[in-house]
Every structure is written in structure tokens, then in C-alpha cells.
């Protein structure tokens, strides 16, 4: 056996550039997708958009497609072959407030469901995707994107006791 670190299977690059950490698999991805979209659909900011754009009977197929997107991105499965940008461009009301909420709910979901190292991977990728979509949409709307920086983070809600 060679001592060459390039031959160590744990360090070998894959076609997506890295080996997924133990525990990051299709079952976890599907759990994240299902839990996140259940929250998103009930949310007062992004729920109305999701519920208007995606019919109730289309949700099972949509969730499978989104799970394929994340599986392709994180595991290199290649199951997703869609073009999400045109569908998002067709939603005129999308704004930074929607992306901020999407990212906050996504962070909360992965923090609840995933070990910290896997949650960090999901969060980093979701922030890249969210910022990319946001900038593409702004550019296609004719906005000046040269001054746009990455989104900050929406603060979690403050708990207030019922009086």
C-alpha cells in the first residue's frame, strides 16, 4: 500500500470535486427538502408565492425534482437536468425579502435535521444558489447589479409571550 495521499479513497476527488461526508445521502436530502418545503408553504412571506405558483397536486413531483437538484449538487448523481432560472424569472414579485426568508428557513431546517458539518455544506450551497438566482433575476429585470453584494441574513423571529 502506498503512502501517497492522492491514493487515499477518503481524499480522492470525485467528479463533483469532493467526497460527501458520511451521513450526507439521498435520504437526508429528501428529509431536508420535505421539511423545508412544508415550512415554506406555511410561511407568511414565501408561502403565498409557492402556493400560487405550484398547484397542490404538483407538489409531490416538485419535491422529487428539488431533491434531485440537491442530490446532483451535493452527491454528483446527475439526476437533475432542469433549468430553474426561467421558472423563477416568471415570478414577478420575487424580491430580496423572499430570498432572505427562503435562506433563513432553509438554514433553520438543516440546523435542525443535519449534523453541523453537513448543515454547513447545505447552508453554503443554498446561499450561493440564492444569491445567484437573485442577481440573475435582477439583471434580467434591467437592474444595475454592479452594486449588489451578497444577501445578509434575516434575523430569526423574536419570541413574544401571548398576553
Question: Which radius of gyration do the C-alpha atoms yield?
Answer: 18 Å
User: So what's the oligomer here?
Assistant: single chain
The biggest sheet, with number of strands, parallel, antiparallel or mixed sense and barrel status, is:
none
What string, H for helix and E for strand, traces the elements in order? HHHHHH
What are the segments in which pLDDT stays under 50 over at least 5 consecutive residues? Answer: 1-16
Which CATH class applies here? Mainly Alpha
Structural class: mainly alpha
Task: Walk me through this protein's architecture.
With 163 residues, the chain is mainly α. It has one domain: Globins (Globin-like, Orthogonal Bundle), CATH 1.10.490. Helices cover 55% and strands 0% of the residues. It is built from six helices and no strands. α1 (26-42) packs across α2 (47-53), α1 crosses α3 and α5 runs antiparallel to α6 (116-140). The longest helix has 25 residues, at 116-140. The termini are far apart. Residues 1-16 have low confidence and may be disordered.
List keywords for this structure.
55% helix; 0% strand; globular; 6 helices; 163 residues; single chain; Globin-like; mainly alpha
